[in-house]
Amino acid sequence: MGNRDTRVRGLAARAGGWSVRHRWAAVGIWVLFVVLAMGIGSAAGRVDVSDSDQLQGETTQAARIINDAGIEEPAGETVLVQGRDGKIRATDARFRRAVDEVVKAVQGTGAVTNVTSPYDPRAKTISKDGRSALVQFDMRGDPGTASDRVEPVLKAVEKVQRTHGSLRIEEIGGASMGKTFEDAFGNDFQRAEYSAVPVALGILLIAFGALVAALLPVALAVTAIMATMGLMGIVSHLQPMSDTANSVMLLVGLAVGVDYCLFYLRREREERMKGHDPQTALRVAAATSGRAIIVSGVTVCVAMAGMLFTGLAEFQAMGLASLMVVAVAMVGSVTVLPALLSLLGERVEKGRLPFLNRGRRRSGNGAPEGSRFWQAVLRVVLARPAVSVVVAIGALLAVTAPALGMKTQNLTLDQEFGDSLPIVATYDRLNDAFPGGSEPAEVVVKAADINAPEVRSAIADFRAAAVGSGASRGPVDLTVHGRENVAFISVPLVGGSDQDRAEKSLALIRDQVRPDTLGKVDGVEAPVTGQVAGSKDFNDQIVGSVVPVFAFVVVFAFLLMLLSFRSLTVAITSIALNLLSVGAAYGILVAVFQNGWGASLVGAEGVGAIISWLPLFLFVILFGLSMDYHVFVVSRIREARLQGRTNKDAITHGVVTTAGVVTSAAVIMVAVFAIFGTLSMQSFKQMGVGLAAAVLIDATVIRGILLPAVMALLGERNWYLPKWLHRLPDLTHDEVAAPPPPAVTDERVGV
């Protein structure tokens, strides 16, 4: 310990050393990289995931047939007309008059085509009880932008409604729903994204007590996000991206960018408080926190790469975008950050806020003593480690228990939005009057000659069998595109908005009706698509990808921890603790959103199911992010052990000295994720609450109680590595800290 130099080795130490020696070059290269990535990405443009890329299976097969044929299905709209008291019939004069006025009104806008009255003999759009009727039409122009042009039609329908108070006259369809959701929630998600940065900055100001120190993590995260946005444009030409991937990338980028900078800056300030000169402080920070950042970053990248194994284009886009932003933030943390800290020196304390962080205690060597709260907790935990392990694991398993009954599905409109939008009530009324009419299944028939007698006969048999089997109550509509040899069969499914019943009807169509009719004609393709089919296919594919994704993430995370700490025990406990954390998050999700326990406390309601993409998404994100804390804390414990401390002393030192930065990072993540829990859509509420709860559990119960208790019980077995594994590459660090100079009297402290 008497060696005056700080002996370091490893990539992080070398990168930090180079950046400190070439400060302006490091900053210049980073700025140039960000500018070039944004410029090239903007010039390249972003290719987004198309409908035909979204899924594998029948839904994709149907989209491929439609795309290959060059058929552009128009955006269909429907106006529901029915009496408010349930007594007025479609044959009544005032009912007919209202329908005629609707037809004239929508035609008068010039924005629609193919208007069909329910009184057209071929329409079959009067309900079985004769009390509801549908006026149907298509929007002119590109169906993808129909929601931008539907407002005049909506106003025309509203005008008719005002003159017929005894009737409900309500429009619904892809364009009108798109506009309604855009108006209500279009900026909701964007506002949450924009508010995340000020929230993070505010918490950092409280944590550091200085404006410059608080701005550094935010600046690193924001520039990493900007660079990744550019890279997404370039990469999208190989792997299409999406707006969802962009939002997830922003969330992950902000979380890890701030975390990594916190880890580095906290250690550098701590070493300076001990009295080390700035260069030595940066060198120690590079070898310790810098290395932890690389280990954590690579582990998070591996976790995000798990999404690539789903086979779902949207998930692959999210995984690749998240992987890129983590890699960029990691590189920035070990290169440009030490350069900036070297340039700023003591100026990192500029903009100090009064009354913040002045009361933190110091140890004899000038370093902060750490959190009093966690010292008190650890005294109890380490005095009774076995009891602590049993209590903590018991509590986590109790929280996890509801997850055993998890049910996943794509949420229906009323589950997603509740009664917050009038159009949801219209959707329910339409499904009640015309079961399955708002979300019919669509059979896309492709044949060498669609007008061949055997094909037309099979289509007719299919239409009859769809109703005869009980899968549909009709009408089963047919649209033939003779030139393209493609036909569309629209099948309203019995069950309507009840997803379970509708899926049973879909299974009848796919497994019985189709094989017995269209399946008997050689050369005919007839995939079934539509909202219910897409939801079923998506859910099936998600469920099918769970095992390979879980296996990939767990195995590679285990190997990375084994190589980074050269301890079989640390690798095993890391995986076990992370799985407990994820399990607890699942349990909370199911309890709140599926069972409805305490849902009103988070402004939600029990909707009976978890959105199908969320469990896998949460696993990947949480497994990656929780490694941040784990690697950082265990690295500090190992470092203290190598410096000669006893096992319990090393655990106390590692947990207490990292408590500030882990708490600050966790509070930021919980606050940012909680913002998304305030959004109106149930799926975003589920995501925000799940992420926030998991991070909170991870930073408190897991890192503050269970980890130290388990390590105390294991003692020297924490660092056990079988002899036959000694040949593994050594990726550990073994810095020897310089002896502290005389005690420092400056009372300014860090996180």
Summarize the structure.
The protein is an alpha+beta fold and 751 residues long. Helix content is 61%, strand content 7%. A hairpin with a 4-residue loop joins strand 7 and strand 8 (486-491).
Keyword list:
single chain, 751 residues, alpha+beta, 10 strands, 61% helix, elongated, disordered C terminus
Give the percentage of residues in beta strands: 5-15%
Mean pLDDT score:
84
What fraction, in percent, of the residue positions are helical?
55-70%
Q: Structural class of the secondary structure composition? A: alpha+beta
Rounded to the nearest angstrom, the radius of gyration is 31 Å
Write up what this structure looks like.
The strands form 3 sheets. The chain has a 4-stranded antiparallel β-sheet, with helices on both faces. A 4-stranded antiparallel β-sheet has the order 7-8-6-9. It has 24 helices and 10 strands. The protein has helices at 11-21, 23-44, 51-54, 58-69, 93-108, 151-162, 174-185, 188-208, 211-235, 243-273, 278-305, 313-334, 336-344, 372-383, 385-400, 413-417, 422-433, 453-468, 499-516, 531-565, 568-594, 614-642, 647-677, 682-714; strands at residues 76-83, 112-116, 132-139, 167-173, 408-409, 441-446, 477-481, 486-491, 528-529, 610-611. A hairpin with a 4-residue loop joins β7 (477-481) and β8 (486-491). The protein is α+β, with helices and mostly antiparallel strands. The protein is elongated.
